[in-house]
């Protein structure tokens, strides 16, 4: 199975690294526009093989899409990350042009591929890729919910002082500082609602920390995060390539689900070899429904900014 990752920067290279050492794909191609950069990252990752014991073949290319031909999955991480104090939405001006061109180039050589969109603002970039290519909606998946849910589980684990892997929790809605919806009511510690153990005040802090999880790391690091984002993409790619049919919150095109149409937004999905195989419509309470509608309005508003690029 072949995976191409466009953008060999922090997130792209980390994703290639995780995919390789976990043996998720037999071949990984990294592509970047910076001369020699992807080649260097690929060689560095390949030199881990003997010490971490993997057999994935990793190669790097400078803007040569012919080397990406026949990819089963293409991950798009090309574009600029935010700096402290910025929102993801502020990246749209530069990243929209990059994502549109990259997506067109990718499809010339891998017309049947499934695209995983990572570049920010991710929900808007997922919508852009879908509208500009006309690909079926099951083949364009925005990665955000896997990461946000993993941050939510981390903050819950810290509050509970219990292992994150014993905690089940999901974030839906937009992948933005104010649009994420951590589903606290449904979060559990080995099947027991976390509300049994944590006060309302603590749960509200956990949800607030989750929503600004990316901004907090950007403030600490000077650029946005990459370890958890890279691992989250690899987790999603694993479910596609190995047809695991995991339930993962992903940004996908909704056509009536959750009362919304014509936007890409985070909802629980079954992810398998066909990409988005099902959108699960879970019951939300009135408060969650109102939050989802507000989040959808914000995501829809951002799509308006694409009008000039989508003509
Ligand atoms: N959806 C999510 O959950 C997350 C999204 N992101 C987003 O992912 C993107 C990448 O972040 P980082 O890897 O930290 O940035 P980075 O700056 O480390 O890497 C981006 C790479 O894209 C390359 N690039 C730019 N234009 C290109 C083009 N036309 N073709 C090929 N490569 C091109 C650059 O040369 C650079 O190496 C950002 O937009 C960031 O906001 C980051 C983390 C999580
Ligand atoms: O915060 C950012 O800009 C990058 C990102 O999407 C994340 O780490 O969640």
Automatic annotation (TrEMBL):
Domain annotation Lactate/malate dehydrogenase C-terminal: ranges: 147-298
GO aspect biological process, one term: lactate metabolic process
EC class of the enzyme, as a word: oxidoreductase
Active site (UniProt): 175
InterPro entries in the cross-refs: L-lactate/malate_DH, Lactate/malate_DH_C, Lactate/malate_DH_N, Lactate_DH/Glyco_Ohase_4_C, Malate_DH_type3, NAD(P)-bd_dom_sf
CDD domains hit by this protein: LDH-like_MDH
Annotated NAD(+) binding sites: 7-12, 32, 95, 118-120
Residues engaged in binding substrate: 82, 88, 120, 151
Catalytic activity reported: (S)-malate + NAD(+) = oxaloacetate + NADH + H(+)
Enzyme Commission number(s): 1.1.1.37
Domain of life: Bacteria
Entry's Gene Ontology molecular function annotations: L-lactate dehydrogenase (NAD+) activity; L-malate dehydrogenase (NAD+) activity
Function: Catalyzes the reversible oxidation of malate to oxaloacetate.
Family according to the record: Belongs to the LDH/MDH superfamily. MDH type 3 family.
Protein name from the UniProt record: Malate dehydrogenase
Naturally occurring in which organism (per UniProt): Flavobacterium cheongpyeongense
Gene name, Swiss-Prot/TrEMBL: mdh
